[in-house]
Amino acid sequence: MLAQHDELNPLQAAEARFDLAAEALNLDEGLCKILRTPTREVIVHIPVELDDGRLEVFTGYRVQHSIARGPAKGGIRYAPDVTLDEVRALASWMTWKCAVVNIPYGGGKGGVICDPSILSQRELERITRRYTAEMMDVIGPESDVPAPDLGTNQQTMAWIMDTYSMHKRHTVTAVVTGKPLDLGGSRGRTEATGRGCLIVTLEALKKLGLDPKQARVVVQGFGNVGGQSASLMSKAGLKVVAIVEWDGAVYNAKGLDIAALLKHRNETGSIVDFEGGENIDKDEAMYLECDVLVPAAKENVISSANAHKIRAKIITEGANGPTTALADPVLKAKGIFVIPDILANAGGVTVSYFEWVQDRQGYFWNEQLVNERLEELMVASFRDVVNYAEKHGVDNRTAAYMLAIDRVAFTIKLRGLYA
Predict the structure, then answer these.
(1) 109 an active-site residue?
(2) Above 70 in pLDDT, residue 1?
């Protein structure tokens, strides 16, 4: 049982949910030990010369949680508060996420303790290239395929791909995903996580008998995932009534013009004081009565301290770990239909998989084909999870974990143990 003081520790939360699902599956104790334990953890220390001539040392991590079903897959985040526990938790979530949508990957995650907001492009490039060089024996298209995450982007992936390729003495586009199109990236990748959120939200609305054209949506976070989710949901006819950001929130009961709000944010650096809406308290905005709440920023925004205030019918978890384990029973008691993160935001890793496939084939798909295949896979995965939940009498999150753990455990039993 997760203790109150561990509630905000992402690793403790991930393990608590694993334990709950493993118990429901009556999983063998030995298999539990294997599935709870990362395959490999690497810590590197990265010496970098800063632009002013000073030498600094940054710490970097890469955790491969599982490689049973295929190469480890997961992003690299640059942030001042990155911890090994956080990276471990995110790596395990990637294992379950890839298994839930049934793509042939394991789970991995990386991070560097740094603050991208105070580093120049040249400094970020030096950090990235040295991190890549230190990880040459770890990453690779057949072993571990990184991607962008918090604080990293297409350019970061281009530097990783180039550094890896220079060491290998030939171009290896499939070593990372989330690359620029001209370097082997996939069409539709930028919108993929947001599009996945839209697809499963529409399926949930249909499941609950709610009209999408009447659905009121609150989106927390207006970065890539939140911005794309809001934009795509608005275009699909859902009414995005509020956007919540770190510095404020805007509200319009008739629905916000998301394209205009994005333009306003790009021009002013903030969503506040938008002419097409009114400023409201960012904390209270999370508790507006709505049909869909999309937490699409960071971890732990819904906890045991505030879950009772949530007034949404559906929660679509665009972020990784936005809900703590102790909040789960509160949301369940309120009858909220939760689409868990390992399903809701799996659109990104799914199109990353498509990118990896295209790179390895040397043949690239048009955006329509990417989106069609994404929808097909996300709809099937949503139905798998909901059917599993109904069959076993559990909530959607527990069902998603049970389904994922079952798939990984089955693969391990088929492969056997090398000794």
Answers:
(1) yes
(2) no
Q: How confident is the model over 133-176, as pLDDT tens digits?
A: 999 999 999 999 999 998 999 999 999 999 999 999 999 999 99
Please tell me the CATH code under which domain 192-344 is placed.
3.40.50.720
Catalytic residue among 33, 73, 97, 109: 109
pTM for this prediction: 0.94
Same fold, 40-183 and 192-344: yes
- pLDDT (tens digit, 9 = 90+) per residue, 51-60? 999 999 999 9
Distance in angstroms (rounded) separating the CA atoms of residues 55 and 73: 32
Q: To which CATH superfamily is domain 40-183 assigned?
A: Leucine Dehydrogenase, chain A, domain 1 (3.40.50.10860)
All structural domains of the chain with their residue ranges: 40-183, 192-344
Of the chain, the end-to-end C-alpha distance in Å amounts to 34
